[in-house]
Amino acid sequence: MDAKELETFIADVPLFANLSSADRQAIRSVMIQRTFKTGETIVHEEDNEHQTFFIIVSGSVHVAVLSSEGKQAILATLRSGEFFGEMAVLDGEPRSASVIAAEPCTLLMLYRKPFIDILQRYPKISIAMLVEMSHRLRRTNRHVNTLSMMSVFGRVAEVLLQLVKDNGRKIGSVTVIDRRPTHQTIADMAGTSRETVSRVLSQLQKKRYLTIDRKRLVILDEAKLYY
Q1: Can you give the pTM of this predicted structure?
Q2: Residue 180 to residue 194: CA distance in whole angstroms
Q3: I need a surface site. Which of 52, 67, 157, 183 has the fewest CB within 10 A?
Q4: Most confidently predicted of 87-91, 97-101, 112-116, 132-136
Q5: 183-190 and 152-167 are packed helices; what angle lies between their axes, rounded to 10 degrees?
Q6: Of 185, 169, 177, 187, which Cα lies nearest the Cα of 210?
Q7: In this structure, how many other beta carbons lie within 10 angstroms of the beta carbon of residue 91?
Q8: In sequence order, what DSSP letters do the residues of 46-75 get, joined into one string?
Q9: Who's near 177: CB < 8 A, 6+ residues apart?
Q10: How many Å is the Cα radius of gyration of the chain?
Q11: What's the pLDDT tens digit per position in 38-80?
C-alpha cells in the first residue's frame, strides 16, 4: 500500500475520524506497515512483549485464548479498520490473548512511545478506544456466558447469529455471510469439536434454516436460531 492509499485508509478508520488531514499525516509518519500469512501468530497470549499496538489495514485476525483443557477458543474476529494490542501497551501487563492471522493480512504497527504520545495529544482517540474496549468486554462476557450455559446446539447457533451481526449481508429475506468460516473456526468460537459443528450444521441444513456452499453461508430463517 503506497502513501496515498494509506492516507485514504487512515481517514476511514473510526479512531481517527475526528482528526484533521495534517494530524492523520503526522500519525501515519510513525506507523510501520507489516504483513502476515494465514495462520501466523501476530502476538502470543501471556507474552511479556507489550510495546506494540496494531491496526488492521486488510484481511482479518482471530483473537484467541487457551482453555483450561489446552484447546484454542476464538473470542472474536477483527477486520479492516479495527485495532488490537492496546491493553498490554497501556498497562504494561502480558498479552491477554493471542492474535492469529485468519487470512493474509496487512497491519499498521505503532510502538508504545508514539502510541502514548498520540493518545495524550488527541484525547478523542482515547475516548473512541475506551468505547470500543467497553463493547468488546460486553461481547466477551456474553460469549463466556453462552459457552457455560447453552447446549452445544445453542452455542453453534449463537456463533452463527454473531456472524450474521458482524458480517451478514441482507439479500431479500435471507442473510448471506461471505467468506464463511471453516467448521474448525466455528468450533473454536463455540467451544466444541469440529465433528460436533459438522453435525449441527447438517441438522440446520436439513431443517432449511441455512445452506452452505464452498464460500458462503446463507441464513434462510434467522429467527429459528434464537432460543
Answers
A1: 0.69
A2: 15
A3: 67
A4: 97-101
A5: 110
A6: 177
A7: 10
A8: T-S---EEEEEEESEEEEEEE-TTS-EEEE
A9: 163, 164, 167, 168, 169, 216, 217, 218, 219
A10: 19
A11: 999 999 888 776 688 999 999 999 998 876 666 778 888 899 9
